[in-house]
Amino acid sequence: MCRRRRVFYNQDLFQFNLFSEKDIPNEQDFFSREINVLRNATNTAAYTGSNTVILRTALEEIGGFPYDTVTEDFEVSIRLQKAGYITYASSEVLAAGLSTTTVPAMIRQRIRWARGVIQSIRNTNAVFTGQLSLAARISYLNAFFLLVVVFLQAGVHPGADPVRSVRGPSGGLRVWRTAFVLAAGAPVLPGVRKVSEHEYPQCPLEPDH
Predict the structure, then answer these.
(1) Is the CB of residue 70 less than 8 Å from the CB of residue 119?
(2) Which among 103, 113, 141, 191 has the fewest CB atoms less than 10 Å away?
């Protein structure tokens, strides 16, 4: 699987509401440009729904797209990794999109992402499986627990209005921005480094076995 970087036409809500357009990057672009590329080092680069090429035989081998998660794209990337394939994120820009434009829409989007990531990690047993490296499992463990903590601290529970639970002054936005970066699970292990595109110049799709 090869995931290309996507940029965004508009400022995200963190940049706009915190008056930080010149101080912080668009968070989704930051994920594509930095965090997901860093995840190449542990072969945990995530498929995030668009601008991606997947080997058809690999997709068929893992049974296609799953239906028991709201982030089927993310789960596909884990299943490919477990099957021995390389999931690679490139910093080359080939597409552009729009960030969410209202706080309620952004919060509902992030709640869905958080739920889906927790579902997918549980479905694939990503933290305990022997089919992933130790570094990859630690990365997914980090994402799992941090997203659970976000739910608890935000007061989000079944039946709660996620927007009302975490809405508020800019402090709420700061919490979500910090949580997004941390829960992405960027590798912070000793010896882990950013993998350059020169090491994977053609976005490898064949299984690593």
Answers:
(1) yes
(2) 191
